[in-house]
Each structure stands twice: as structure tokens, then as C-alpha cells.
Amino acid sequence: MKKIYLMLLATALLLQACKKEEVTTTDELSNPYSPYALRMAALFPEGFESGTKTSYTAANVSLGSGQWFFSDALIGTASADRKTGARSARVRNAGFIRTNFNLEFGINFVTVQHARHGTTANSTWQFQYSVDNGTTWIQVGSNVTTTSTTLNTATFNLNTTVPTRIRIVKLSGSGIVNFDNISVDEPGEAPTRDSHLELGNPSNATSNLAAPSNYLLSKTQYVLSYNNSRGSANWVAWHLSNAWKGPAARCDCFTADTQIPSSFFRAASTSYSNTGFDRGHMCPSEDRDGSSTDNAATFLMSNIIPQAPNNNQITWNALEAYCRTLMNQGNELYIVSGGYGSGGTGSLGGVTQTIANGAITVPARVWKAVVVLPIGSNDLSRVSSSTRVIAIDVPNTQTASSQPWSAYRTSIDAIEAQTGLDLFNLVPLEIQAAIESQVDNALIQ
Q1: Mean pLDDT along residues 412-424
Q2: Owning domain of residue 103
Q3: Given a cut of 50, is residue 378 above it in pLDDT?
Q4: What does the mean pLDDT of the chain come to?
């Protein structure tokens, strides 16, 4: 079906190139198979780079993805407009922007980047869709409040399979919002929730009480190897795709993990209090907001290690956000992270070896390894010698934030040498040899 559609689209574009002028009728807009509708079918992501609209007066505007309607909105090019290129949409008051065309095969999910324009106030907005050519609109997820002057990404899961239009509506208020880089994932190879250990169990951990330093804890949201002698995980592994994303709020509900055997040490929510170290997530809260249950699981103390605040909140957080950016670009990721060694420097200064009366070891280094694959199935078989792999090894100190996370890139081989783990060990050996010896050198914006 998609091949036929693409052939029709190409034909429509060729015919249009031969025309000097065209008048679009209401019937053409509502007919999903008219030449106009085919030509205007989605060419996303939409970054507003090809359009011009300099006033807030309601009007149609032709963009790279198709024709949109702007109400109390324009395309901003000023320095105060938050954007990744030269332009972004700017919406004020109770304005909105919407597509005048359908995504003919439906929509899996949409991602939208948003930020406050200039020094204006915070604003609240919502994302909507229509399956009746714009006659009625349905809200997706919760209202979004834009508080940052830096572009952040919001994800909306629609899961429609019929012609669908989209709309972004600013609810009210004195603030102004910039929107940019709107991406649409159409049905085809839909993202799924896959096995966290699809690519391997790094330490061959098992749920054997006789092995308290390598005890397997398997959860719906992630899997980990618990080390009772360290009071934290050796490693935590999780799969990341948009199938894990949703509107659930961050719960901030740190809780002891009762899945840890009662004969082992279980960190409490207060075990890190007044230590100078953050309760640092391995599997991030924002990677698991598909439901309140998923999010709460990330606050179990078994998913937490002592991290220097600047490391956790700046360096580590930036890589977490970058992984979600890769996800939003149509990828799924297999991620493993942990710490090793002992002796970190938190906000109190000095080197701290342990906390919680010696029950929890403060790691000297924290590491993460990421395998990036386009969304698909049979993931293990799709890992090749050209698959992108990112690995970092960061000192667990306050000064770690003096450099971006990308400065700490290393090879998986180097991490394995320090930790004794065998990461992604189900990948064929010849492919492991190729990808695990390399240091990622992609340009990070």
C-alpha cells in the first residue's frame, strides 16, 4: 500500500511541477486521494524552514510538509525565537497551528520541540488530532507547560490507522511559545517494548541466593545485577523506544526494593541523605513515563547509585536527553549502565568511599553503553559491524561537568576491561570485535 502511495505522490509532484498556477478547492482538501492531498502528504520533520509568515493574522502557509493554517501565529526568524535552524513557529494568546492535510495511513506518535519565546512568561498548550478532516479535535495526553528557553521535546502517542490531521493549541496567557522540528511516525514498523537483555546478560547474573554479588532482578521496566557487597547494582539494562513513552508524571517516589532478598542489604529512600551525593538513576525516569507504574519502578532504590550532583544533573542528564533524541529520530536503543571502583567526590568535598554506614559503595566512575538501531524487529540479528555504539566512562566527581558528556566517550572494550563485564555478549563475536573496539566520533550538537 505504501509503495502505491509513494508512486502516486511522485506522479502528483511531477504533474504539479508542470503547472504555473493551481486553485485548491474545498473538495480537494477533503479528498485524501486528490492530487493536492497526495502532494501535501507528510514530508516530515517539519522545521518551518521553507515557509514565510510575518504577521499573526490567521492564514494558510505552505511548508515543506504541506499546507498549514496559522491562527494568532507566525513563522519567527528573530534572535528571540527558539529554533534549530533559521525559523520556527511562534504562537501567542490562544492561537494554534494545524495541518490542512491528512497523514493518510494514520500516526503512531508525534514529537514536538517547544520553548519560551524570548523572555515571555510560561505558557500551557495541548496537542490534538482529528480523524474527520478537522471537524472535531481530540486531545492527546496531558496539557504541556513550556517553562524553558531551551527547546525540549514532547512526545504524543496517537496510534491511529486512518487519515489523521494534527493541531497544536496554545491555551491562554501572556507567554509566547516557539514550536520546531515536528516529527511524525506513520504506521509501518511500529516501536515495541522489547526484551532488555535481547543483546545479552553482561555478567550472566542469576536469581541465586548463593551469588549475592551478582543477583539478577528482572522487572518489566529494566533488568539489573544486584551486588549486595556494594549495596547497589553492578549494571542496569533497559530497552528504549517510543513504546515506553507517554504522559505519566515524574513521581519522585524513592522506595526500597522489596524484590531484593530480605537477607541482603536494601537501600532505603533516606540512605543517601546528607551524604553530598544524588540518588542517581540508572534507567531514567523520563525513559519510563508510559504509565505511573513504569515511572515508579525507576525510583526503586535498586536502580539508584550515589552520583556527584554535577555529574548526575548535568553530564549524565545530557546523555540521557541525547538518547531520547536518537529515539525520537526513529531509533530504538539498548542501554546498559553502572559504576565501578570506589571513592567519589560529592557536594561536601573530599573523597567518600562509602555511605549508609558502609553498606553502599560510592563508585569512582560511572559508565554507560548504548547500541542504536533503527526501529524494527529481530533486533539481535540486525546488529552489524556498522551499528552505532556509544560508550562513556565519567569520573564520579563535581568537576565532571566541566566537559560535555561527549568528551568522555570511550570504547566498550575499555569499559569491559575495567568492570570485568561482557557487554552485549549475544551479538556474534566478529561483530562484537568490530563495534566494541571503536570510540563513537559522531558530531554532537
Answers
A1: 98
A2: 42-185
A3: yes
A4: 89
- Which of left, alpha, beta for 146 (phi over 0: left; psi -120 to 50: alpha)? beta
Q: Examine the domain organization and report whether 64 and 122 are in the same domain.
A: yes
The question of whether 281 is a catalytic residue gets the answer: yes
Number of domains in the chain: 2
Q: CB-based contacts of 169: which residues, under 8 Å, 6+ apart?
A: 94, 95, 96, 125, 126, 127, 128
- Spatial strand order of the sheet with 331-340 comes to 215-218, 223-227, 232-240, 331-340, 365-374, 388-395
The grid coordinates of residue 103 equal: 497523514
The band of 186, judged by pLDDT with boundaries at 50, 70 and 90, is confident
First to last CA, the chain: 37
Q: Are residues 148 and 219 in the same domain?
A: no
Q: 3-class secondary structure for the chain?
A: CHHHHHHHHHHHHHHHHCCCCCCCCHHHHHCCCCHHHHHHCCCCCECCCCCCCCCCCCEEEECCCCEEEEEEEEEECCCCCCCCCCCEEEEEEEEEEEECCCECCCCCEEEEEEEECCCCCCEEEEEEEECCCCCCCEEEEEEEEECCCCCEEEEEECCCCCCEEEEEEEEECCCCEEEEEEEEECCCCCCCCCCCCCCCCCCCCECCCCCCCCEEEECCCCEEEEECCCCEEEEEEEEECHHHCCCCCCCCCCECCCCCCCCCCCCCCCCCCCCCCEEEECCCHHHCCCCHHHHHHCCEHHHEEEECHHHHHHHHHHHHHHHHHHHHCCEEEEEEEEEECCCECCCCCCCECEECCCCEECCCEEEEEEEEEECCCCHHHHCCCCCEEEEEEEECCHHHHHCCHHHHECCHHHHHHHHCCCCCCCCCHHHHHHHHCCCCCCCCC
Residue 4 in this model has a pLDDT that exceeds 60? no
pLDDT (tens digit per residue) in 94-142: 999 999 999 888 898 899 999 999 999 999 999 999 999 999 999 999 9
Say if residue 225 is in the same domain as residue 361: yes
Q: Is residue 121 part of a domain?
A: yes
Segment among 45-49, 88-92, 321-325, 383-387 with least mean pLDDT:
45-49
- Asked if 217 and 82 count as a contact pair (C-beta separation under 8 A), the reply is no
Q: Is residue 143 part of a domain?
A: yes
Q: How confident is the model at residue 237 (pLDDT cuts 50, 70, 90)?
A: very high
Q: Which of 114, 117, 196, 281 is labelled catalytic?
A: 281
